[in-house]
Amino acid sequence: MKIWIDADAAPREVKELVFRASKRLEVEVVLVANQSIWLPPNSRLISGVTVRDGANVADQYIAENSDSGDVAITADIPLAAQLVEKGVFVLDPRGEVYDDRNIGSRLATRDWMDHARGAGMELSGPRPYSQRDRNEFASSLDRVLTRAIKIRDRKVAPQNPIKPDPSSGEPA
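and the corresponding structure tokens:
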């Protein structure tokens, strides 16, 4: 299990929370961006990938390299949709968790907004990142990581543990 961060637009506070969770839970983190990425020194669990310039190249990298059961942090709704379909746990930097129940409507809203902007409508952008956003993200991250770790541990646990032979005299 890995945590993937779409790092070009992720707020510093989000990265710091993920870094702390990574250290506490011993979970690998990969930051992916179109530009060089600052990484905390002496962290064996945190790595960065700088992809070549181009639209959605970082998104493509995450989509191609993530696996079911991983966790991804992104504000990019089309990327979130790809990842949800793949079985990746996805949350945005404000703490919204995307899943198969809500990603379709979020994608439709995003597409409508994109179309409206293309038609010349002036729409406001996202509000500034706040302490409330940080708290919501921290709470969502804890819940998502707990679920992801339970699933990972179920996959790792032996399905058919070897039972001692009753004739050997060993307790069952």
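(Above: one complete record from the training split.) Residues 79 and 129 are 21 Å apart (CA to CA).
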